[in-house]
Amino acid sequence: MIEVHRVTKTFKDVTAVQDVSFEVGRGEVVGMLGENGAGKTTTLRLIATVLRPTSGSIRVDGLDVTEQPRLVRRKIGILFGGETGLYDRLTARENIAYFGKLYGLDGGEIRRRTEELAERFGMTAYLDRRVGGFSKGMRQKTVLARSLIHNPEVVLFDEPTSGLDITSANVIRGLIREFREEGRTVVFSSHISGEVERLCDRVLILHQGRLQFAGTLEELYRSRGTADLDAVFMQMVGGAV
Ligand SMILES: Nc1ncnc2c1ncn2[C@@H]1O[C@H](COP(=O)(O)OP(=O)(O)OP(=O)(O)O)[C@@H](O)[C@H]1O
Ligand SMILES: [Mg+2]
Question: For residue 42, is it left (φ>0), alpha (ψ between -120 and 50) or beta?
Answer without folding.
Answer: alpha
